[in-house]
């Protein structure tokens, strides 16, 4: 249902944004916490979560290291 997702964009970017938000919430972090760890602003991280910004090249590897994720 459209009301559960206020963000919309390209499918891949949008799906990545949902996954990113899930990782953040599952770790009990607010945007600023995760953004600080990833060395970006919370507004930029929010834009990635909403699919309004492209996924930076190094973001996936940073997430793997910081959150112990597999490929």
Describe this structure in words.
This protein is an all-alpha fold and 71 residues long. Helix content is 58%, strand content 0%. It contains four helices and no strands. The chain has helices at 11-26, 31-38, 42-49, 59-67. Helix 2 crosses helix 3 (42-49). The protein starts with 10 loop residues before the first helix and ends with a helix. 11% of the residues are buried. Mean pLDDT is 85; it is low at 1-6.
Distance between the termini: 30 Å
Instruction: Provide the low-confidence segments as ranges.
Output: 1-6
SS-based class: mainly alpha
Main beta sheet: strand number and arrangement? none
Total count of strands: 0
- The count of helical stretches stands at 4
Q: Can you write the helix and strand succession as a string?
A: HHHH
Q: Mind telling me the C-alpha Rg?
A: 12 Å
Which whole number gives the mean pLDDT? 85
What fraction, in percent, of the residue positions are helical? 55-70%
Spatial shape: globular
Percent of residues in β-strands: under 5%
